[in-house]
Serine/threonine protein kinase (Streptomyces coelicoflavus), 324 residues
Amino acid sequence: MNHTAEVFQPLQDDDPRTVAGYRLAARLGAGGMGRVYLSHTRGGRPVAIKVVRSELADDQTFRRRFSREIKAARKVKGAYTAELIDADPDATPPWLATLYVPGPSLSDAVARNGPLPVPAVLWLMAGVAEALQAIHDAGIVHRDLKPANVLLADDGPRVIDFGISLAADSTAHTATGTTIGTAQYMAPEQASAGAITAATDVFSLGQTAAFAALGRPLYGDGPAATVLYRIVHSEPDLSGLPERLRDLFARCLAADPGERATPAEIVEWCRRELGRDAGEDTGPAVWREIAGPPVTVPPPVAATGAATAATPVPAPGPTAAHTA
């Protein structure tokens, strides 16, 4: 199977054909929140449509928080985010649409090609930190920053799924066995039910970038409880990271949220380090190497008559798959 076929999966029998007038061209994946589909705006621009799972859609607490988070997410306009362009938190089921980012997730890129070179890690951290600035300025804490939620476009990283995890985390969804958030990338205060702040996202950025540099989670794999115990009770082992990155990672991964670097400080630090490599190839070629060949996005689906617009949208049921 080629990469394009892996990204754009055919619609299955239980998938809707339209969502609020958006005709669906392919399935992109499924996760804790629901299923994600490729569609297009009326002008032909590709978008990712996320349709919320039935368990969450039936929870009124989720719907209220989801509505509030959508309002906040509409304010985020950062260059390194996937902009929210449409949503209906009151629909059955709720859904949202963001601009489609043509590029692999960081997790997929590392799985295919191994750890990123130092310049690419610096570009990654600077872009994600700039995205966090825009997200935090809108009053949002991401809460679930991880390699699967960072997409590698040809001009830099894009942070996705910001402002959504809080709504899902407020429900009784854990009874279904689905957890919003990933143990390997949580901050100590997240793991111990402490106060969640913008500094929480900085810790997750440190872990996400460490994954990019190492090719594996900094705190290892294993049962979630074991990983969370390590995060709360042990110092991160930075010895395997490139030496020139260790000081910045130490700042991002400080146990005390008040001692962590701010996103603005991370951007400044990375730009300064990239300036030292001005004579090296640290620009777009870095991203072409790690993102791989471009994929061909399927074209918009042509209208097939009134019956298409009337197709109901079923809420996705539980699924074991998890993607961005």
Q: What stands out?
A: Confidence is low (pLDDT under 50) at residues 170-180, 306-312, 317-324. The chain has 13 helices and nine strands.
